[in-house]
């Protein structure tokens, strides 16, 4: 998904349009000034340097995150569908790699360039520290790889108030024929509300069956929080 950012002086905002109208009409409005989030101390109890044997690209269903929240960028100025939560080095067994190395604060240019993909400077900093530092030498390389995988996807438009987890997988497969159903891990929040879809990749970034399973079973009815009009 290619995003173009254009400065609009009267509104002090930037607009970018998704290139693929066949899947989502998601637009992105950025503030004229973007502030990176500060780095936080590494939680020692969460450090895990286990071996990575696959990756997962986690896509959050933004309307569910915004339900009851008022973050201006993600929940007020924009009406996102799926956004990128993060790209996670993962292990088939045991704890996943986390906080593997020191992660310096992101610079403003890196944050701004990827903010339509992951619309939260705080989330971006956390993803770089918790996951990116387990597989990449620089934040730029981590977010470049994340953006490359994101750009290859056609996130489906989910307009129905309910779908089964199997139907959500089928919607992804229909829009992305190269992704097998077994590579799609559907995760729900309380009340069986759609929270996230994880896509599993092997070490060469080809979609592969998720070693830990597909999450929510096919027959479970999932409630889908609608996008803001």
The helicity comes to 10-25%
The poorly predicted ranges are 1-25
Number of helices: 6
Radius of gyration: 17 Å
Spatial sequence of strands, sheet with the most strands: 5-4-8-7
H/E order of the elements? EEEEHHEHHHEHEEE
The average pLDDT is 90
Q: What is the CATH third-level topology name? A: Ribonuclease Rh, Chain A
Number of domains: 1
The CATH class label is: Alpha Beta
Q: Tell me the major beta sheet.
A: 4 strands, antiparallel
Q: What's the CATH H-level homologous superfamily?
A: Ribonuclease T2-like
CATH architecture: Alpha-Beta Complex
Principal-axes shape call: globular
Termini gap: 22 Å
Percent strand: 15-25%
User: Structural class, from helix and strand content?
Assistant: alpha+beta
Key features?
globular; disordered N terminus; 3-stranded antiparallel beta sheet; 4-stranded antiparallel beta sheet; 229 residues; alpha+beta; Ribonuclease Rh, Chain A
Please give a structural write-up:
By secondary structure, this protein is of the alpha+beta class. It has one domain: Ribonuclease T2-like (Ribonuclease Rh, Chain A, Alpha-Beta Complex). The chain contains six helices and nine strands; from the N terminus they run ββββααβαααβαβββ. The chain has helices at residues 62-66, 72-76, 108-114, 121-130, 139-152, 165-175, and strands at residues 6-8, 13-17, 27-31, 54-61, 82-90, 162-164, 184-189, 193-201, 221-223. The strands form three sheets. Strands 5-4-8-7 form a four-stranded antiparallel β-sheet. The relative contact order is 0.18. The model is unreliable at 1-25 (pLDDT under 50).
């Amino acid at each position: 998904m290619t995003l173009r950012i254009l400065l609009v002086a009267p509104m002090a905002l930037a607009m970018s349009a998704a290139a693929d109208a066949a899947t989502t009409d998601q637009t992105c409005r950025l503030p004229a000034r973007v502030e990176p989030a500060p780095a936080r101390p590494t939680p020692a109890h969460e450090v895990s340097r286990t071996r990575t044997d696959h990756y997962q690209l986690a896509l959050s269903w933004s309307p569910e995150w915004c339900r009851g929240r008022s973050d201006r960028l993600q929940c007020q100025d924009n009406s996102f569908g799926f956004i990128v939560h993060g790209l996670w080095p993962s292990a088939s067994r045991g704890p996943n790699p986390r906080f593997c190395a020191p992660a310096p604060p992101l610079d403003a240019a890196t944050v701004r360039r990827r903010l339509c993909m992951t619309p939260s400077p705080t989330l971006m900093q956390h993803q770089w520290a918790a996951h990116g530092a387990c597989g990449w030498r620089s934040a730029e390389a981590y977010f470049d790889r994340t953006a490359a995988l994101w750009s290859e996807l056609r996130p489906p438009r989910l307009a129905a108030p309910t779908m089964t987890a199997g139907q959500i997988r089928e919607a992804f497969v229909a829009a992305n024929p190269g992704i097998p159903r077994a590579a799609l891990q559907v995760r729900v929040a309380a009340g069986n509300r759609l929270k996230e879809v994880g896509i599993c990749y092997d070490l060469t970034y080809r979609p592969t069956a998720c070693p830990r399973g597909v999450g929510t079973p096919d027959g479970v009815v999932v409630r889908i929080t609608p996008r803001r009009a």
